[in-house]
Amino acid sequence: MVAALLLPLCLLCASCATLNTSEEVARKQELQWPPLPLMPRIQWVKEIRDQGDAGIAKGMWQRFGELFTGEVENRIGKPYGVYFDERGRLFIVDVSYGVVHVMDAKEKSYYAIGDLEKRTFRSPIGVTEDDRENLYITDSGASSIFRYNLKKRKLEPFIISDLARPTGIVFNKSNRLLYITDTTEHQVVVFDLKGNLRYRIGSRGNAPGQFNYPTDIYVDGSGRLYVTDALNSRISTFSVEGTYQKTFGRSGDTAGDLPKPKGVAVDSAGNIYVVDALLDAVQIFDQNGVLLLTFGSNGANPGEFWMPSGIYIDRNDNIYVSDSYNRRVQVFKYLDVKDTSTRGVEPAGNKQTEQ
Predict the structure, then answer these.
(1) Helix, strand or coil for residue 337?
(2) Which residues form a coiled coil (predicted)?
(3) Contact, 286 vs 271, CB < 8 A?
(4) What is the DSSP string of 92-111?
(5) pTM for this entry
(6) Which residue blocks in the chain are alpha helix, DSSP H?
(7) Which of 150, 281, 344, 350 has its CA 20 to 30 A from that of 208?
(8) In 3-state terms, what secondary structure has residue 181?
(9) What pLDDT, in 10s, does the model give residues 127-139?
(10) CA separation (Å) from 18 to 10, 13, 25, 133, 305?
């Protein structure tokens, strides 16, 4: 009798799952930029609000413990810095909760760096990783950089002087140095992995090579630096040695302008992505600063943003955007027109069930 009742229910659930999957595929095909019939170059993949969205199911003991202690809150509060490493781990800096979410879809594990109650971090912003499995986290409120060893799961202060308000941070593999935007000092400060100050780049102003409250920083495969010069409404590029190269961007409120630029990143083709919090969009430029494409608009639906901030592009051209006030990270895919087989592919190590 029970089996007879369960069979139709299972069939119904199976048909619903098939329908939902079909609807999901159709929705993904619609969320492409530019829209069809033009050749799409950017495709929406998914959103991540918690560990489940990253393909990490709760373990048996975690579920058992929650029966007595209550559900553990693993949802994202206000994401800013985001990073996806070569081992398939996603790191999300959460300004609201003062932690760094670590989501490892391959190992099916989730944990947080930092203690919300003790407020380990005052105001964490940026995150990067070196070539020895060490994370570096900027804490703008504490004027410090923390280092976290991923193997030992050990957090320690790394740089506690020489910085006023560190925000963006990036590790440059070409010379094994850390580059940090010190926003209120209007500089990029460079340290080695022992925490020694090597040199500083820039000063306050609007001349070439100067900054007015820089916020984010990125390094491409050749070691070139890209700095978000926020109140100058531009992106400035520098050589690996810190020599100024060029600048693009201007103030305004239309496509191609940078009224409130935040995160910056570069894909495998050399296209430059700039997150703009005022436009609620991501704008893509070529190496000469010519606008190629814009995706996103204000809202809470897939492909829409509300005050986005950080961005990271992994080696497979998956694009992770911190949609700060929507409390999520949205994942997109750069579609190389020479390889149409990449369309609709989930990020490596991060399928719907699995930068």
Answers:
(1) coil
(2) none
(3) yes
(4) EEETTTTEEEEEETTTTEEE
(5) 0.86
(6) 2-30, 60-69
(7) 281
(8) strand
(9) 999 999 999 999 9
(10) 12, 9, 11, 40, 29
